[in-house]
Design brief:
Strand 1 and strand 2 (55-58) form a beta hairpin. The model has no long low-confidence stretch (mean pLDDT 89). The relative contact order is 0.14. Helix 1 (4-16) crosses helix 2, helix 1 (4-16) packs across helix 4 and helix 6 packs across helix 10. The chain folds into two domains: 4-82, Arc Repressor Mutant, subunit A (Orthogonal Bundle); 88-311, D-Maltodextrin-Binding Protein, domain 2. It is 43% helix and 23% strand. The longest helix is centred in the C-terminal third of the chain and has 27 residues, at 284-310. The strands form three sheets. Strands 3, 4, 5, 6, 7, 10, 11 and 12 form an eight-stranded mixed beta sheet that branches. It has a two-stranded antiparallel sheet with strand order 1-2. Strands 8-9 form a two-stranded parallel ribbon. The protein is an alpha/beta fold.
Length: 311
């Protein structure tokens, strides 16, 4: 029978690419890692790792076992979470993953509210882009993931259940000295000759929303620079490099030399969702956090709408 502890070691070796890195990650000695892998190879009856001066490489058998290990370890995590949930939120853990702008805005509020209600639950939050967050969710590395999609291009995944939390409107960001900065609202068509700054990936929902909004306004934006960091994008805008669409969640801190303007027509929005595994065990802590997130996002949206109307 294969030892679960050794399966964890093999998976860490595969992830880190060397015995020394896996040892550091697991707080083992390198010798202990080597012994664990050797014992696992005896249990499996075949070589799992090729060792060389350049490091380690999984054999075909090793790669196959890691794929099964991901499933096995995820199910064990589910079992541990279910046992903890029997105590009724009096113990247990909840692992959260969020993209940057939500991690700086709604997540701190949600975590504070959850802790006030359920102080015995151990919470953790890890940053990850939406695509990476879904991969972590499927691999059993988190319980809840915050994701983004475009309203006109929702991607369905039979293994994932998503609950809509918030429509996040996007605003035009331009240099404070831009020729249109004095206008309270901007027609995107008036920016057809400007250079644009977009996200790095064409598959990113924010990029898709930018392209769709500009195409609806009758032009193809000339994207001159790319960045996934909205603070960096503000820096490019302030320097006069171009204009951009920035979501409201990324606008709690705005530079003095950047003008933020609403779009004259219905503003483009991105949808913020909370994702969980559809068929995985869902602990009471997960349901409790989703309820908190819905309340926090509704409160946040009301505050931002009131602020927009007042400005």
């Amino acid at each position: 029978m294969l030892d679960v502890k050794r399966l964890r070691v093999l998976r860490e070796v595969a992830a880190k690419g060397s015995f020394s890195a896996a040892a550091e990650s697991l707080a083992y000695t390198q010798s202990a890692i080597s012994q664990q892998i050797a014992a696992l190879e005896r249990e499996a009856g075949t070589r799992l790792v090729d060792r060389s001066a350049r490091g380690v490489r999984l054999t075909e058998a090793g790669r196959a076992l890691v794929r099964h290990a991901d499933v096995i370890l995820a199910r064990l995590d589910d079992a541990e979470a279910e046992l903890a949930a029997i105590a009724g939120l009096r113990q247990g853990r909840l692992r959260l993953v969020s993209f940057a702008s939500a991690g700086a805005t709604v997540m701190p509020r949600a975590i504070a509210a959850f802790r006030a209600q359920h102080p015995a639950i151990d919470l953790s939050l890890e940053p990850a882009d939406p695509d990476e967050a879904l991969q972590k969710l499927k691999a059993g590395e988190c319980d809840i993931a915050l994701t983004i999609d475009a309203p006109f291009c929702t991607v369905e995944d039979d293994g994932i259940e998503q609950v809509h939390l918030l429509d996040d409107p996007m605003y035009v960001a331009m240099p404070a000295g831009h020729r249109l900065a004095s206008k309270p609202r901007i027609r995107l068509g008036d920016l057809r000759d400007d250079a644009w700054i977009g996200c790095s990936s064409t598959g990113c929902p924010d990029t898709m929303i930018l392209l769709r909004a500009c195409n609806t306004a009758g032009f193809e934006p000339k994207i001159a620079f790319h960045s996934d960091d909205y603070l960096a994008i503000q820096g490019f805008v302030a320097a006069g490099v171009g204009v951009s669409l920035i979501p409201d969640l990324a606008l709690l801190a705005v530079r003095d030399d950047v003008a933020i303007r609403a779009v004259t027509t219905r503003p483009p929005v991105r949808r913020i969702n909370v994702a969980t595994l559809r068929d995985g065990y869902r602990s009471p802590a997960v349901d409790a956090m989703i309820a908190v997130l819905r309340d926090v996002c509704a409160e946040f949206a009301g505050e931002r709408q009131a602020l927009a109307l007042a400005s």
